[in-house]
Write a structure and sequence with these properties.
single chain, alpha+beta, Nuclear Transport Factor 2, Chain: A, six-stranded mixed beta sheet
Length: about 350
């Protein structure tokens, strides 16, 4: 009997090892395919040969540029666009060089374009062995592609639950049950709840009391309000999306430190007026590293802003951040607004567009 148990254990272990080996092979295959796709893209740009895209683009291919609001959809439309683009480069005698680099943070090969010292990255997304999308962005913006219309059909490794996802689920449970005992242990005693551009509430007891009052005001939240756990790509963490019927969507975001929620921020999504068409918190930010904040785009210093988004890394309150006027050009459109920067972490924290500009 002992030999039989050992044999069964060996069979299970062998299957596990084979499964692990298969996963590693699939990852390696995906990596190699990504590299080959990037090589074709790189060659197309260096040779200004649009025909090289014909064999690698999916029929529902999408091209997204951070500098243009509209997503270009369809293989034929992109082929027409890139053919004209290459022709313009030839006529203007303003050459572009392309090279492949591997960006470890996103575990991908990307193509870096250099035109007169101006750099941009082309990040490919592959689905069903075809090029599903190209995402043009600043080289330093090494965040996962977020504009895919569909998720990849093949999931290699299931992502573990993060502390932000766990907190959001528990907070949702507390709202549904009107009982915060399930999330009480997760809240720091000195937790601060910030109500965006309004006020802040300090202390665990007061924060819980606010949310119990909130539930009474809305009445039957499960009927009148939809709740979802979403990935807020602007701050790269899971949040609780609160969607009251007929009202603006709200995000309850947390900043967790040493296993405790130290700051909670309840803010609208998007932050700005719906009249100003700009990305919401479900998309990665235009700028998050200090080096991407172009000095020539800075305007005058602004007065500190109370009760806005704090630095989500160190917790520096919005009134202690550095605030500037900031302008951003995005192709035919542009934006002027308020930009906050954490001088401790050297990161941009919040861009709040106030004016939509149109260029001729």
């Amino acid at each position: 009997m002992l030999r039989s148990k050992n044999a069964d254990y060996k069979n299970v272990r062998d299957r596990q090892e084979n499964s692990t080996a298969t996963i590693q092979q699939l990852i390696s295959m995906d990596m190699e395919l990504g590299k080959r796709m990037s090589e074709v893209i790189c060659r197309a740009w260096n040779e200004l040969d649009a025909s090289l895209f014909e064999s690698i683009l999916s029929d529902d291919f999408e091209y997204i540029s951070i500098w243009v609001l509209e997503t270009m959809k369809g293989k034929n439309r992109y082929i027409d666009y890139i053919t004209g683009k290459f022709e313009s480069i030839r006529k203007e005698n303003n050459p572009v060089s392309a090279e492949i680099i591997f960006q470890e943070r996103i575990d991908k090969y990307v193509v870096v374009l250099n035109q007169g010292g101006n750099l941009a990255a082309l990040e490919p997304t592959i689905e069903d062995d075809m090029l599903k999308s190209l995402w043009m962005r600043p080289v330093d913006m090494t965040l996962p592609a977020v504009f895919m219309s569909k998720k990849p059909k093949r999931s290699i490794v299931k992502k573990e639950e993060t502390e932000y996802e766990k907190f959001s689920k528990l907070f949702h449970e507390a709202l549904m049950e009107k009982d915060f005992s399930c999330v009480d242990w997760f809240l720091a005693d000195d937790v601060v709840q910030i109500l965006y551009d309004n006020k802040e509430i300090s202390g665990k007891k007061n924060v819980i009391s606010y949310w119990l009052d909130w539930l009474e005001r809305w009445n039957e939240p499960a009927v009148n309000t939809n709740y979802n756990i979403k990935l807020c790509k602007y701050y790269d963490r899971e949040v609780l999306s609160i969607e009251p019927r007929g009202k603006r969507i709200l995000y309850q975001m947390a900043r967790i430190e040493e296993g405790k929620a130290k700051q909670l921020i309840l803010c609208p999504n998007p932050l700005q007026s719906p009249m100003i068409r700009y990305w919401d918190l479900d998309h990665s930010p235009l700028l998050f590293k200090a080096q991407t904040v172009m000095p020539h785009r800075m305007g005058k210093d602004l007065e500190p802003r109370l009760y806005r988004i704090p630095c989500m890394r160190c917790g520096c309150k919005s009134e202690n951040l550095q605030w500037y006027e900031y302008s951003h050009e995005a192709g035919p459109l542009g934006y002027k607004g308020e930009l906050s920067v954490c001088t401790n972490c050297m990161e941009a924290v919040e861009f709040f567009p106030t004016i939509l500009l149109r260029y001729k």
